[in-house]
Amino acid sequence: MGYGIEAWVIRYIKEMDECKIKKLTKESVNMEWCPLNESDIKMNFDAAFDVPQAKSISAVVARNASREILVPKMIALGEVASPFTVEAHACLQAVLLGKQMGYALVIIEGDMHQ
């Protein structure tokens, strides 16, 4: 199951890199917060993009139900096409980290601002 998501994200990033559309629309969805179950894990990811240098830094943090940090991960990338690509790559890193940790179900949360 994780490989299917990984392959989809990689194809999606490639498609977006090739896309020449400058303006994207976004839809906000309000969700009500609820605490994690003891066996759940949550991945938060975020990214920063330096437009002139086309470089980025992204981070993923894995937390348990007690909000303890289990694993922090930071990724530096060069030659990145857009802020969207950076956020998509950070999301992929969250999926891969959950897979590496051996979890079948992971809650993933990011905050794309554009």
TrEMBL record:
<dbReference type="InterPro" id="IPR052929">
    <property type="entry name" value="RNase_H-like_EbsB-rel"/>
</dbReference>
<dbReference type="GO" id="GO:0004523">
    <property type="term" value="F:RNA-DNA hybrid ribonuclease activity"/>
</dbReference>
<dbReference type="InterPro" id="IPR002156">
    <property type="entry name" value="RNaseH_domain"/>
</dbReference>
<protein>
    <recommendedName>
        <fullName>RNase H type-1 domain-containing protein</fullName>
    </recommendedName>
</protein>
<feature type="domain" description="RNase H type-1">
    <location>
        <begin position="44"/>
        <end position="112"/>
    </location>
</feature>
<dbReference type="Pfam" id="PF13456">
    <property type="entry name" value="RVT_3"/>
</dbReference>
<dbReference type="GO" id="GO:0003676">
    <property type="term" value="F:nucleic acid binding"/>
</dbReference>
